[in-house]
Each structure stands twice: as C-alpha cells, then as structure tokens.
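Good morning C.,

I know you're traveling, so I'll keep this short. The sequence:
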Amino acid sequence: MDEILKIEAVKKYFPIYKGIFRKHSADVKAVDGITLSLKKGETLGLVGESGCGKSTLGRVIIRLYELTAGKIFFQGHDFSLLKGKELRGIRRDIQMIFQDPYASLDPRMTIGQIIMEPMKVHGIGNKESRMELAKELLEEVGLKASLINRYPHEFSGGQRQRISIARTIALKPKFVIADEPVSALDVSIQAQVLNLMQDLQDKLGLTYLFISHDLSVVEHLCGRIAVMYLGKIVEIADRDLLFINMLHPYTQSLIAAIPQFGIGKGKGMKALSGEVPSPIKPPRGCAFHPRCPKKMAVCSEKTPELTVPDKSKNQQVACWLYE
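The tokens, ready to paste straight into the viewer:
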C-alpha cells in the first residue's frame, strides 16, 4: 500500500499568559513530538485517556490548529505551512467527523444545506446538481432523501451522525479523521455507525484515523493501533499483535480496564490508578513513570524513544523495559 499521510516530530503547544501585560509564563504541551504514517486504505486507531492530546493531534493534522513544530505530508506533499487557496485545495481530500454531531451541525440550516455547504465552498456544480447529490448522499448513509428539508433538531443522535458522515463524504475525500464519532451514541447505534463507516471505506477507498478512548471499539474497526499518553505515542502495533502482546505498562493497564477483557486478555494485569500529570509541566523522563508499576531508576531520568524490540514483529514501544 502507498503511504498517504506522514507526520514528523509534530508538536502543538498552547501558550499560557499571565498578568496585565500578558507575559508568556508556560505552555500546555498537548502534542509533543509525534511521528506517524498511514497507508492508503488502512484504519489507524489512536487511543488514550481524556486529555492525552489525541483530539488535538487530529485537529493539527487537518490544520484546524497551527503547528508549533514539525511537518505534515499528504500524498508526499508538505502542507504544514500552506494557507488560503492552497490549503483549501488539500482540505478537499482531508475531512473530519466530529464527536458531537449536534454541535457540529448548524441548527439554522436544513440538512440539505448542511450537506451542500462544502460543495458550495469548493465550487462543485450548481444548486440543482448539489441538491441531487445531497439526496444521493442521504440515501448512501441510510436516511431517506425526503428528509432533506428538515433541521438537525428533528433527528436522533445516530441520525445526526449519519448526516455528519454524509457531509464528510460530499467532497469524495481520500482521508478522514474520525474524532470519537460514536462515543456520544447508544451502544446499539454505535455498531450501526461503525458498520456504515466500514461500508463507505470499502466503497470509496477511504483511509481513516480513528480517535477513541474505547479500545473495544478500536479493536473492532482498526487494523493498526497507536497508544498515546500525555502528548506522545508510547506504543504502536498491528491490532491482533497488540492485544496478545501488549508491551507498554500503560497499554496493559488500558486493556485490563476493559470489562470484557478482565478475565481474558487483561487477566493478571492491574487497571490504571492515579491521575494524568499536567501537560504544562510533564514529569521528567518517561511521562508515565509516576503511575507505572514497573518503573525503574532510569525512567525518571531519561525519555525513552520508540524502538522495535523484535525485528520480526511490526510493533514499536517507548519503554526502558525493552532497551
């Protein structure tokens, strides 16, 4: 498979200012030097606790947030510094599904207008052709075309997320960032939306970055999984390998916390305790060491880099246990 997206040493810091003179006093290190790549047609899951920076990374990739440092390549082209018309051209191929479908849909617009808006922005077709395409897209995501003149508040949460997905695929993108797309939905509706996303991937050849805190959902949908903690990737591996050979103590704790794995894949592991340290002043060395049951002296002194412990396996981990 060809590489469609690559990010290199990406950082996103949010400055903190104090006093009447707005003096820069510190930074929130939301994303702190992440390197990742995705191949065309794959689904990469990005998991971690709330506050680890995974949603921020998604917004940085699509350039809703400006980078503090690093580079982003899409289909081999660096668009880290693009602006205006050039950036808009790239965004036609990169779209995003947001967590809360109601907050991401304009309540003053009909769903037809919502779906047609990206086509209008990018100058696709005329009003009549855009309306016809919007009706086709509604049918594509499992809604009736006759509903096109209704407003978002007239739909359930699952239906609203289907509308969001219809808007997302309106421009026929190649890469979609899905930021917790099912976490606000009932479990039964989650399965329907996930199946819809898989069907669209097969039909349209989409590549997904699927952001979630729920490892059981990620296991169902993703072929590869990256585990994120306090702005950094601590482990990345193929899905099946990760769930039978989780290496990082943080990954082990996440899997142990999943109820259905408590007597299965997480057996014998301890669920995570303690709180995530502040991203304003992360711990020295490995950021996870204050909560790690296997910490050593070196963990509080030096920051581990992602390494490949076993050359025969497609798995990387940032942990001193494997150095």
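Safe travels,
E.
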